[in-house]
Amino acid sequence: MAIQINKGDVINNEELTELFKCSTQGGMRRSHKTNTLVLVSNHVKSIYSDRWFGKELHYTGMGSSGDQTLGTQNKTLYESNLNRVEVHLFEVFELREYTYQGIVVYNGKGYQENQTDIDGDKRKVWMFPLELKDGKPVRVNEIVIKKLQETKQKSLRKLNKQQIKRLAESKKATTQSYRIIETKSIERDEYIKLYALQRAKGNCQLCEKPAPFLKKNGSPYLEVHHIKYLANKGSDTIDNVTALCPNCHRKMHSLELQKDIDKLKKLALEKLEI
Question: Which domains does the chain have, with CATH numbers?
């Protein structure tokens, strides 16, 4: 039975269930009606650690508590090259949005590693290296990846010291995972940058202290900051830029305090003294 869906399509859970005639829940959903196994790699709400290595996804097996075995759907995936079950991959980057990556093929080199289960206890899981049949994963926007990292960082703050210790100690030295992302390069006007730096007269416009050091050419080291980020459709104009020391620049991006934003907005309206 041919499934009518295209790579990159984003659908909801109801549409996924109707399309594949599978369960509404779980990361591994077997359908006998369509002879498929739907894999969902949920990067928003999941205890599993699925990782991309370029064009290959190492997918964590089924089972949220205790050691995983090669039973149920883990067995289906493990034997998918023999049982002729077609395996389809979705990824979740936003709640209730399932991005279709395409048909994947298990490369037969499954392995076990230590991860923590739903209770925070160390256990063994099965990892299944999967390769996309067409070899081309859907590229994810860099901004989406950064949002996911921020969400994960927030969730980690809820862990106690013992849980953090378990997670950190279960991490072994392996090849660093990476995925191909889509980036958008915004061209910035060098005249605007120079204007902002000269207007600051060598002092950070937030903490008002002198630049932390001089560059090799003798000019003060300050970083140009866009009050409304270019990624959020802010303008690259003199009334939207300020010059900050590295500490204050990080502070703006980390805290985004309204009082600091208001202060910089006022300073950005000042004209360069000739």
Answer: 10-182 (2.30.280.10), 190-268 (1.10.30)
